[in-house]
Amino acid sequence: MMEWVIRERPYRPRELEYSYLLEFTTRLHGIPQGERLFSRIPSEFQKELLYNNFVIVCLEKGVIRLPLVYMRKMRELGYPISYLVFNRLIILHSSSSRRKFIPKILTQMKADKVSPHVSTYNILMKIEANEHNIESLVKVYGEMDRMKVEPNEVSYCILATAHAVARLYTAAEAYVEGIEKSITGNNWSTLDVLLILYGSLGKERQLERIWSTVKELPNVRSKSYMLAIEAFGRIGLVSRAEELWFEISSAEGQKLTEQFNSVISVYCRHGLINKASALFRQMADNGCKPNSITYRHLALGCLKAGLVDEALKTLDRGSQLRTSTRIQRSTPWLETTFSMIEIFAEKGDVDNAEKLFKELALAKYTRYTFVYNTLIKAYVKAKVYDPNLLRRMILGGARPDAETYSLMKLSEQFRR
């Protein structure tokens, strides 16, 4: 339609309409087509809106060099660059190999006199949270406060979740209060985060309150049901989790692997392996294929039930299935893996504890002191002395605490 308007000119399009056309053309037909259209747009409309939109779309497609050329043109023409452009640049450089460029992007942002938006800080905090780097996360939050940028519900969600994962529950509770105060309307994504957080913090009353709010939404998503099932299971309310499972089962008919996994995780967390096994068989009857997440939960359930050999076989079956990096770095996967390490540590099974520990190290989950302390405990229980454990811990990014030194002192008696 817009192309017809440009060609036939029944009326004169404005800058906003050209901007929409350029955005849609670039998204649907590619960057070269977008560039050609850009050159055809009258020069009086080639202003900041057009440039910013084109640069953002190019960056969203993962292209960096061309947007930098257009940003240079914007500086020459004196057009302000949107903070959204810098947000997208930061996201594109958020991988481990590219993160070193983020300070340069922020420096350029300052040189261009672009003030970081709350969303900019949220992106920076999320990057640090994904790296399990609480210290750097808090630094970003401190900078945000110094610049007098008001946090929003997303900011508090990132902070609360990161501290809960790090088992810094007092700080997590404080940030949860921030979420409750800043929440705008019934945002399902924020409510989902609160379900997870109240489950992690063991807050039954608050969890029920948030779930009641979710149930009042026009459409309750399957994902919300799964998160609620896992949250109630986490605080030991297995029967309540089962109620929600029966509710979603009767409402939706055909069930998905992810839905089965949510209930299996509850049973396995509490060592109810018979119930988990029955549900596992029910999966096959429903035509659902178990995935690596299913087997990881079942392995934990076997360990909780004292079935070590069966747990190792189940782990092996799961390892033969493809598991994405995103899943392997997800909090549920990491926490399930850590729970297994805890059991192996209590048994003094250093070999199996070390095997799983390597997985956590790849995801940088070992930056948390409690993770390394659990590994050291495995050595103590096995009556094995390893003088390199403390050095490994420090080089791995974790800070030794009183428990660390106490465990290391205990292990010294096994020195040969």
TrEMBL record:
Pfam entry (one): PPR
InterPro entries: PPR_rpt, TPR-like_helical_dom_sf
Lineage of origin: Eukaryota, Viridiplantae, Streptophyta, Embryophyta, Tracheophyta
An annotated GO cellular component: mitochondrion
Protein name per the record: Pentatricopeptide repeat-containing protein At1g07590, mitochondrial
Annotated PPR repeat ranges: 117-151, 256-290
Keyword Repeat: yes
GO molecular function, one term: mRNA binding
Gene3D superfamilies for this protein: Tetratricopeptide repeat domain
Keyword Lipoprotein assigned: no
Similarity comment text for this entry: Belongs to the PPR family. P subfamily.
Organism this protein belongs to: Punica granatum (Pomegranate)
Keywords: Repeat
